[in-house]
Amino acid sequence: MIIENEKVRLEVIEHGGEIQSFYDLTHQLEYMWQGDAAFWSGKNPSLFPMVSNTWTKDYEWQGQRYAMKNHGLVRYADLKCVKHTADEIVMELHENEDTLKQYPFHFTFQIHYRLNGKRLDVVYHITNDSEDVMPFSFGLHPGFNCPLLPGEKFSDYKLVFPQDEQPKQLAFHGRHEIIDRSFKEIALNYELFEEYATLVYKDIKSPYVELVGPKHKVRVGCLGYPFLAFWTAKRDAPFICIEPWYGHGDFEEVNCSFDQREGTMNLKPHEGFTTSYFIELF
């Protein structure tokens, strides 16, 4: 499925309902990571109903044990296109026999994509179609080419916030730590990710973060998300993921029920949850 205007072209695929391409027509430049098994075969999965996983890789609900793969269900499923107009694509997933074995709830999961100039607005609607309260978490995992142009290096790029930040870093590097940080920019280098694997920050105040290179940049919205993470696969991986999250995986053994894990939301029967973010190209 493709929508475009005079400035950009967006392609969305059924698998995961993911963005396959967000292409700048004015600069003839692909901003989205295309996937490469040598580094990371994923592209930009939606994380539902779990971000990462539990410490034990399974969980108990109403006396039964269930297990999901990393980051939940949607990234492994094929979504159906239920709307495709000149400027909007809507992808949808309902529970099925496979999802119910992993997550015993009936739901409707929708992703709405709409172009506005060089900005892509992405809106998520999640509805609990069950007769019981539905615990879930949610997050985003878009990967961006970094560097964007030949001759540039990963270390030529930085993450820039529009205001000074003083978040908590949730770190796990041999042991779980919560570290006070203060920054407005984060210079990218592989050593940083070798130390922490994933940079996870709590209580970022800025409404967006920018991945800034020598000639181009991309702005990613994160307003309203309690956590913001950054990840790349390994040294020399030519991409970075910018990940607004509502929850996070377990950094250590957690002694609470599945519905009480940090960042878990509990949606009442037949009620809905809506959230959004944006990607803007420069």
List keywords for this structure.
282 residues, six-stranded antiparallel beta sheet
In short:
This protein is mainly beta.
What is the CA-based Rg, rounded?
Answer: 19 Å
Q: How many helices? A: 2
Oligomeric state of this protein: single chain
Give the overall shape, derived from the CA principal axes: globular
The fraction of residues assigned to DSSP E strands is: over 45%
The largest pleated sheet is described as: 9 strands, antiparallel
* Number of E strands: 25
Class computed from helices, strands and strand pairing: mainly beta
- List low-confidence stretches: none
Distance between the termini: 24 Å
- Biggest sheet: strand arrangement: 8-9-10-11-25-21-20-15-18
Helix content: under 10%
The SSE string, one letter per element, is EEEEEEEEEHEEEEEEEEEHEEEEEEE
- Mean of pLDDT: 95
Describe this structure in words.
With 282 residues, the chain is mainly β. It contains two helices and 25 strands. The strands form six sheets. A nine-stranded antiparallel beta sheet has the order 8-9-10-11-25-21-20-15-18, with no helix packed on it. Strand 3 and strand 4 (29-30) form a beta hairpin. The radius of gyration is 19 Å and the shape is globular. The model has no long low-confidence stretch (mean pLDDT 95).
Task: Lay out the secondary structure.
Blueprint: E1 2-4, E2 8-12, E3 19-24, E4 29-30, E5 46-47, E6 59-61, E7 64-66, E8 80-84, E9 88-94, H1 97-102, E10 107-116, E11 119-128, E12 134-136, E13 139-140, E14 143-145, E15 158-165, E16 168-172, E17 176-180, E18 183-187, H2 190-196, E19 198-202, E20 208-212, E21 217-221, E22 227-231, E23 239-245, E24 265-267, E25 272-281
Antiparallel strand pairs: 1-2, 2-3, 3-4, 5-13, 6-7, 8-9, 9-10, 10-11, 11-25, 12-24, 14-23, 15-18, 15-20, 16-17, 16-19, 19-22, 20-21, 21-25, 22-23
